[in-house]
Design a protein that fits this description.
alpha/beta; 11-stranded mixed beta sheet; 11 strands
Amino acid sequence: MFHSERGAPGAGTMVLETDIAIGDEADGNGFERDTGITGQPWLSLLVPVYNVRPFLEDCLRSILTQIGGDSGIELVLLDDASTDGSGDLARALIADRGSFARLLGHAENRGISATRNGLIDAARGRYVWFVDSDDVLLPGAVDALRAIVEAERPDVVICDYVREGEGRYPTFRGPERRLARCTETLVAGTFIRRRLHLWSRVWRRDLFDGAIRFPEGACFEDVATVPWLLLRAESFYYAAEPWVGYRARPGSIMARLNRACAGFDRRTNDDMARALCGFGGALGRAVPHAGPETSCVVARFVSREFAKIVKRLLRGCRSKAGCAELRAEMRRYRIAMEGCSPLPFGQVVQHYLSKGKIGRALELAFWLAITRPERHVELAETGLDAVLPEGA
């Protein structure tokens, strides 16, 4: 779904609109500074742009004020054929500063995955950091990243984020503020927090080399990509501090999915159901000696996404579909998503029971029961036939 061979940078995907290269000072921090087209910056900040004019200025200014004239950092933007003047605003903002910046553009709208793929192809930095154009970088983020990268050179650097009007949101559970070398810990600590954002992690660019690509034409491109990048990483550093200010945008995918009156978007939910296709097997191959808790953490993530889809399905389709049709759709999602999980969902129920999480166990067991014709068999498998209320 998202694996393909890496093509030549930008080949057939974009047209160059602006290329502004300013500044060629010496570095002095141990990194090779980019002083021209053939050099390599230590960091590429990658910003996809599409109809975000009300948010874009705050985003770019939060970046530009931190990178100044540092020629060891490049800023690459790709305008996905915006119709609200976002591209013109981006051009004006980067031309007004002395930073090395490039504005690229699609001739026609191609979607976020194609835009992210184009940005990766265009990036020249050793590290890449995707910053969504409706978010901001918090003050001091780039300097903090530079200190970590210079001292430790990890494959992945993880940060937290804040939401408007709310506090810090941790994105990882595990060792903090030190270099760690354990892929299993990285995977488990990411899935247990359930935050698979692309933008809360800074990646070595060579992790994308070869087959890792964003799934063009699909939603949830981060869920379909981040886990496989984690499997490639041999080292990581969790900064345990917020570097990103997340701003909820009314037109975002999650905003549309969470609207109770919006109906059920089958295509978008199908993308979520398929996002982790094959990951259970990939985890077993990459971490063959992974403990059962790691497999269970991933399986819990998948099963909870299954439960969310089922509830959205009921909320959006109950007045338009009969009971048999709804159950068939639920069953379809279960088959697809249980096939992505390293463990059967029945074992997840048993895990919840062993941890005393009766509410979670009951909810998942209920969805499993109604997505199989032989309901009593499902209950026997999960061990909940004795704890479900009579007639449930």
